[in-house]
Amino acid sequence: MPLILVLILAMGAVTAYLPLPERRIRDLGVVAAAVSSALAVYIAWPAFEAVLGTDSFINGPTGIFGPGALWYLDSLAAMMMLLIATISLSSAIISHRYLAHEFREKIVSLTDIRHYYSMVPLFVASMYVAVLSNNVGLLWVAIEATTLSTTLLVAFYRKRSAIEAAWKYVLLCSLGISLGLVGVLLTTYAAGQNGVNSSLLLSTFRDIATAGGVNTELMKWAFVFLFIGIGTKIGFVPMHAWLPDAHSKTPSPVSALLSGILLNVVLVSLLRFRQVADIALMDDGAWTGKFFLVFGCLSIAIPALIMVIQKNYKRLLAYSSIEHMGLMAFAIGLGPAGIIPAVMHMPGHALLKSSLFVGAGEIFLMYKTTDSAPVIDVWKRLPKTALLFLLTLLMLLAVPPSAVFVSEMIMIGFGLRDYLLPTLLVVVSLTVAFVAMTRHIYAMFFNPALTTASAGHMPAEKWNVTHVIMIIQLIAAVALGIFYLTPKGLELMVSIAQSLNSGLL
Amino acid sequence: MITTFTSSEVTTIALAVSFLLCAFLGSGKFRLGQIIRYYALQSLFLAGLLVSMAAYGDEHLYLSALGVIIFKVILIPAIISTSAKRSSASGRLTSFVRPAPSYFVSGITLLLAVLAGMSIAPALEETDLILTVTAFAAMFLGGAMMAVRRDLYSQIIGFFTLENGIAILAAATLGAIPLLAEVGIFFTITIGALLMSVLSRRLKELYAVEDTGELRELVD
Amino acid sequence: MNSIVLTVIQILVVLLIAPLSIGLTRFFKARFQGRHGAVPWLPYLTYATMMKKENVISTSGSWMLRTTPYAVLGSAVFLAIVLPLVATGGALAPSSNFIVVAAVLALGSAFLVMGGLDTGSAFGGMGSSREMTIVSLLEPTVILTFAAFALATGSSAIDGMIAGSSVAGELLITAPYLLLSLLALVLVALAENARYPVDNAATHLELTMVHEAMVLDYSGPYLAMMEYAAALKLTVFALLVANFAMPLPLIMTSSSPLDVLLAVGSTILKLVIMMFAVALLESTIAKMRFYRVQEFLTGAFFMALTGLALALLSQLL
Amino acid sequence: MSLTTLAIALVISVVGTFAAGLVALWPDPRAHRASNIILAVSAAFGAVVGIYVATGSNVSLIVPEALYPVAADGSAHAWPMFYGMVFGLDRFSAIFFSILSVVTVLVAVYAIPYLEHYAASYNVRSVNALTALFIFGMQGVLLSTNIFGFMTFWEIISIASFFLVLADGTEASRKAGFLYLIITHIGAGAIMSGLFLLSGGALLSDFSVIALVTPELPEVTFSIALGLLLFGFGSKAGLVPFHVWLPEAHPQAPTHVSALMSGVMLKIAVYGFLRVLLFMLPGVPMWFVLTIVVLGVISAIVGVLYAVLERDIKRLLAYSSIENLGLIFTMIGVGLLAGQEGSVDLTQAALYAALFLAASHAIFKTGLFLSSGVIIAAVHSRRLEAMGGLAQRMPMFSVAVCVLALSAAAMPPFAPFMAEWTFLQAVVGALTEATPMLKVALVVILAAVGFVAGLALFAMVKMFAIAFLAKPRTDEAAAAVEPKPGFLIPIVVLAFISLILGLFSPLVLNKIGAVDLAPADLGTQVISTGGGGLAPLSLFLVIAGISLALFLLRRLLSDVKFERSYQTWDCGQPTTPRMEYTATAFSAPIRFFFRFFLRAQKVVTATPLTPNNPWVASRTMSLLVSQVWYDRLYAPIGSGVTRLAGLVGRLQNGSIQFYISLILLALLVTLIVAL
Questions:
Q1: How many domains would you assign to chain D?
Q2: What is the pTM of this model?
Q3: Predicted ipTM > 0.85
């Protein structure tokens, strides 16, 4: 079944090179995205149906596709599939309008559009594979494929800074992922010690680990390499340098995909490996939790500080992504129960961050620059985008009704019980970030244009598809926030968290 | 600790040492042509190593050796040199460290690799120890090359030396990776090489940039 | 003799002898300065004639100009009724709680200040600013002084404080440590009534005035009411201090008509003695520069504070 | 009224407030009036419920099961929302609920003409919606009974009020808004952490459950939690070290919103503080009680000193809020201190005095802010120096403001005086048999409260006199006219409530539970505590009687019509408005007397009129009152964070070699550390 999904997307990529006019290519892109999302939801739905039907959920080590299969689907993977589906669909719809506008203004040529519509489906396909694959080698290849497929997208605008960002992106991420490969090899070696085992399947690793057949010393080495390697791809602080450059130079629909969903997918794959390490080390995640806690706190504090002096609004959003990844890591580091808030945080952050990047894209189209200084008086010139952007930003900054608020409060609740000082550091950094972002965005929106000349002629803003998407995702985030408050919502989240730590309450 | 080695193991160790020697020498050279040739030689030794291991391991290794030869000895050097020639990049490579001290740096990284090997030794069987040490050595050499060198192409070569180190580690620890994973990894590496060369060519043609020192625009 | 009759007697006596206090001080001061001076009952005549004079109202003022005389005189009359001046245990004695008294005093001064500002002249403004500073910095001293008395006598109504002892001035004998608080009360009285160290009542130099500057712009009946209020406040404070200090009889519910006559005579005697003391004080010391009044006020505050501390310590012994 | 009707009224009030917010967003211009009317009506419902529950005997109103969806198996459980939290109003929160509702009714009525007058500078729809949300948040805080609900609505209050402060979009309001945002957000974080520490991280536990858990908390976490809670609630209530945002943020918000913020939001902080202190914590260590008292006294003194100095009318009112909140916290502190030291009578009197002062402060402060709105609308400036002569032009309005100003200065017939009287009398009464340590504390507090009361009178007289009396200093002031009824009615009603609350304070105190403070046997006419008694109504009747007698006597003894009006005599030359005393001049003695604390620099610049004659010059004097707290405490923190950010920003220096070595370094360090 997942193979068909990958095939459809591959076909979408190929059709980009058919001798069709530019408009048809964009339509085909949207169609491919729609079909693939529908199929993804169809695949992922049985996982949710079980929970909502209030009977116990198929969550054992086998997953939906049976023990030995190449693919592995449990509730967490199902949630990720759902997220990838929604955000890739919205990004496709928005890029339809975004590229049309760019093409009309002659910034982008036809070949560029062909590149775009060949790369994006491949990227989405590799993400689907990364989430579903049970085979470790395939997982590694999928993650590396996400990097390679987005390199040209980062260098899409052919500007010097864009190519520089692409160069750094491809080099650093490939370096990171190869370290990750070292970790993967060591894990398979540690798991395959006694019997010859060439199955490379995560589920088999878990069975061997529960049987106690894993060499723990080697497993520790493997986890360190894995954490630093894949951590580079997630953007934990010491290894985050590529992220602000890459996410701010790509066209906005792609940076919405990158920031919104790619970071979560890679984090989930890291958690899969962590699960094997936890079962092997039999300490219920204490040893591995330390990594997440330390790197989590770092990844919250440092970006929060850098945001204070940030001058480019897209880089500001990129740093906020690092910070939210740090938040999820911090939550995971709080112990076995910490996974629940982390899992709650993922959809909220994905929906809101992608909508923010899309809004930033809209502002970029009108103001032609991602630098914040010349962007002024947005409230009066782009009233619809500004209002939606501000509301989404507030939801992201954990204002009550949003899902992010619920998850952050649970996180701080658990954090205070056993790690007092790190939690206080986190609370203060969240405030610093809150203020930095609000002040930055507020200056952009409400600085009145000094002279009408500097205002430049700006066509009155019409109601376009970006606003529709932003509204839908905003409402989804708020609905999610309220859904978390109901007992059924909590039950679903706990069952998703259980897929990572079966011993959970 | 010296255990008696069978004859085929002696050949593997000899090939591993010569592989390391090429990597070590490559790290000191400052002409593009030279480091590409050393990289090809290094991959050749890797293929030889795999063949020698196939003697007492399982026969899949023959196939992977063939893959190494096709991809790493022929294809990747070809891609890099064609893109360099087409964009008429100057062969001279620049680095933070002059040639003589760069050997010194490589020496230190080798020492570090041995140290790392020692500390992981208790967890491995006897025979794999030497190969793991070579793998670590190659990886660290590649990493040092990427960190020390300034220009674009030598960073690509540094990355691929690191890749070779990992290939050795795979061979040492797992013997034969299943075919699907092997092919996947090879393809990914080639596409990586392709992309990196495309980017460097664009940089060279559009902005006449060869040295990453000039790529420092994206700050804070 | 029930309490209502006592209060009526007290009202009549105090309201009648009020102008005499101003007259007496002027008379004694003239004599100290070797002048013959006017007759002590001259203020009665001046207030009566002023009532008949034309009332000139400033165009720049508002309704505040008209309400100030009533408010100021009202608060003075309230104090005269409530406090134990001639008789203790009067009808309104329970509401002579020291915090209420301090607040009504402050209310009277507040209206006086607002009246002074309303005329819109620089002198009125200057006088009001100074008066307001003095009144507001005096508030803690008033509260601490009466707190000490309340602590010593156990009742926080001023009437209760004095009624405790059968003879008026007996309080000091039974609780000698209250001397310091009494001194603080004297300083407060001097500051409240704009007497010597703080303000010179007889000055003609507008720049040095405090109390006089505020009533500069009143004339006719309003000026009479303001002057009368000032005289009344001076009498009230004089008699209050006298009752605390001098052992002369006060009318009680149990006293016969003879005692009433005796008490009224002693009240007039107390007033003469106090006015003589005030005149003596004003002829011996010089007026303080306004910006040094701060030391006067801080001195009064710390005296009251130590008085209270002494009262507390005495509880322990 | 049975419980269910009460609950329905309560639900109507809360839902009505939210609906008002939604209606406000409707693009049609009539929506402005409609939303405010809905807001007023629903607040009226809230007032009825609040007063009924506050004064009822111990009826604690939990929104009854009738309104909850009944589960399938017939067991009624609370709304599925908020993890089954139960919304309820007990006697204690009902007092604050009624304050909130009464003030909201009047503010909503006032908002209608105000926003129409200022339609140009405010986005009317967003201000109305945000105000409704703001009030909804406050209602939510009062109704919620577990941490999650409390924190959610607390956050709604902060965000709604933040955007209201930024409503007029000027640079100053943005600067004030962000300062406000920083402090309230950190404060909210501190409260959340403190509450979680107390409840052991359990997110859903009810307040009553926490009360059981706290006794066996280890000493260290207990004191950390207390510190966090004091910081959280203190920063929201404007206690001194964290008060810096209050005089900046309140004046920037639209007037009716700053009235709400000053009058009611600060009380919500007091409510939260008392809810935690009295209902959740078993006993509170001595150091905590002493810090409350010390902070309360310092805020009162600092607040009143700066109120005396201030020349901007809304900042003056903001500082007077700080002073009143300082007094409230001192009373709470003394109540707790007395509780510890064993004099029970003082505890009850002090706590009820604090509650009563909070209620009366809400009334008169809202009135004063609303009237400052009217003055600013007439004079187009917030500086006192630009006002003057308004009493002549707006007699009715100025009488109401005079009543409000006198009640702000705690003068006799009005409510704040009764609260202060109860507190002072209780302190004096408790002095006799208190323990030595309590004696010293009580003496210091007695002196401090006296000092603050005096200066409060100074500030309020200055505000009223300079703004209203004498001749108008600018032509806008001269052209001022009696405000429209929409403005006037709320202010007059508030003045009236302040008077009534004062006169019938024994009745009110008795009803809200202070039974032995205002005993029923004396016909609830007298507040008796600490050996003294006060009968406010008879006191008022005596004063009224005297004034009436004087009025009649004056008519008897002199001819009323024998009157002439003439310009003020000023040694002959005509008096001009420039000769009047200004606010700066009026407060000069105090500025001189307290020059050590207040650091005010006076700059007099003389510009000679004719070049060759230096003596004939026009002198202008400017006064710079430095914000001591802001420059010493907040500015360094701000620049420190920016410097640190610059330092960290260098991490992103652009060279790829640096990034690669960073990754390898991270790998090596982790390997060494972890293995």
A1: 1
A2: 0.87
A3: no
